[in-house]
Amino acid sequence: MPVAVGAVVVAGFAAAPLLADAGSAGLPDITAQQLVTKVLEAKPVPMSGTVVYTARLGLPDISSLGAVSGTVSPADPINLLSGSSTLRMWTDGAGRSRVSLLGATSEYSVVHDTTQAWTYSSKQDAVTHYTLSAADAAKLKAEQQKHAQTPVPGASELPTPSQAADQALSQAQQYSTVTLDSQTTVAGRGAYQLVVTPKTSGTLVAHIVVTVDAATSTPLRVQVWSTDNAKAPALEVGFTDVSFAKPSDAVLSFSAPPGAKVTEKTIALPQHTDATKPTPSPTAGALPQNVTVSGTGWASVVEVRGVKVSALLSGNAAAAAAAARNLPHPPTAQGQDVVSQFMGGDGTDPSKSGSGLSASTLYDGLTKAVPGGRLLSSALVSVLILDDGRVLAGAVPGTTLQQLAG
Amino acid sequence: MSHAEPVVVAPGPAPAPAGAPLDPPSPQRGATGRLVRSELRLVFGRRRNQVLLAGLAMVPLLIGLMIWLTQDTSTRGEGPGFIGRVSQNGLFLVVAALFLCLPFLLPLTVGIASGDSLAGEANAGTLRYLLVVPVARARLLAVKALGALAFVAAAVLAIAVVGLIVGAALFGVHDIALISGGSVPIGNSVLRVAGIVLYVGVSMTGLVAVGLFFSTLTEVPIGAMAATVVTAVVSAVLDTLPALASIHPYLLTHHWLDFAEFLRIAPDSHVLWTGVGVQAAWVAVFGALAWSRFTTADVSS
Question: Which of A86, B42, B85, B265 is 20 to 30 A from B19 via CA?
Fold first, then answer.
């Protein structure tokens, strides 16, 4: 009797994933080009689901570095550097979305509503409200209306999605080979797998697999495989559960919980907003004076001069702010958010990266000393921070960076 | 200690094969009901258990008073889990108290209640009298499980009710602030906290079955109690080892903290049912083990 019960229980747990995986086969055969066309044609759709993110970057366990006490891991974006995290996301496909990073008994939420966004950390009970200035909001609105009048943005350059797919593919094929892998099932949905393999052997990236839902052409999973590890992807983010129903309004709206600390931030739009143009390749755009890019394609290395890392880590707010200004800020608003979050650009104590972990502890834990500076080497990206103020970064092995640095 | 007397006098014409294995349920009507009543009287009448319940009820009282006394100091709002939110909303005292009791105090309570159930009778020499009752052994086991479950439910409820009363008296009851941001109206808030209490209670059932099984193995109640508590602690330790990530979802304690789902903006029923399902699996396996052991055991004391 106990044996029978045990067998039934084991069978029950083993059968659940099998049932979920049923119905994967039988998608029509298509080519890589057709798949890319479908993805580019697809309009953003309302969807919601659970996303599991796993990083196997070969970095030391963040939680072992510092004051994370107990077995309860709090929801903190810093945890995304290593290990597995669960997120939930909802979007209406039209500018409103919510993404929640789940901790055991905590949550870090990012709610986005066209021209404004909120982040809420339940651990710190703190809300940050990002808004565009009135002028910028008007500009964005005007631009959106302009786009509404010309139904296909940038009509002269990108007349149809299939031509855009051509362009994207040919750009990708300059440095990579693009192939289709066998059909698979992600979150219970039949899906195609697009595999992008770099042509060069000088990069840490072995290949990237993008899994695309067959019905809606929405990417459901992205895996980045490192040359270090052929058994498991170094970075994997994908839905474990997805629904294409419209999320409820309550989920997509945000109100600060009573008693929470609210910080207001106004962010400026970057000067040249043109969402219609394809992202320029790193060499084409005008780079800040202290940045150079060497190498091509996957083996590109970015070099930044004049970075005072010690000032960033010292905990001296003024010095850190000065040093942070010297950094080339990412051109997008999101990028600036990330920088200001991690640099403490709002005047909060910059030695804390918002996680209670001291930034210098984190820095010392993640990097190791090499001649002339410190090296962060992970399965996908290496960063070499030299004592003379140069920082080199790229998806290449650390030794390549050291050779380049001379 | 013994509760043999109220049942032993039960008039029964067919006492002979009562304790035998694979005995069909006795046709004696009312015997089971009397056994349940007697078991509940025994469990709740025991001084040790009453003290334990009172001690558990002290937890929210102490936390509430501590937060109330320190709410004007600089350490206000600091502490693990939900402590920081209690001073804004008394409802969170229920959640904070359950959260603090989950790792050790509640498993201890479960261990005492379920570990003692059969081993205690065997130790006192009353188990063989109990087996004379015209009730099948399987049913006796079920009655013992029911007694342990009732006590654990009472323990969780004691924490919740005292937490609610103390929280409401000291901090008032307001709309609950979710950990996703935002808040929900008072009626929904109370429902969500009730859901947490229910989920925590259900989370204990697997451990009750484990304790019941250990209780059938020994005549030393303290051994069964300790083994039950150790099971919970070992499970919690295994849950922290990244190397064992593949077995984590099936561990007894892994889903205990999922009660936090009730505090998210859109509680995912799939997560909650997974937790309930894992408990059901543990109940099935260890319930079957306890049944197979107890229905075939040679009871001599």
Answer: B42
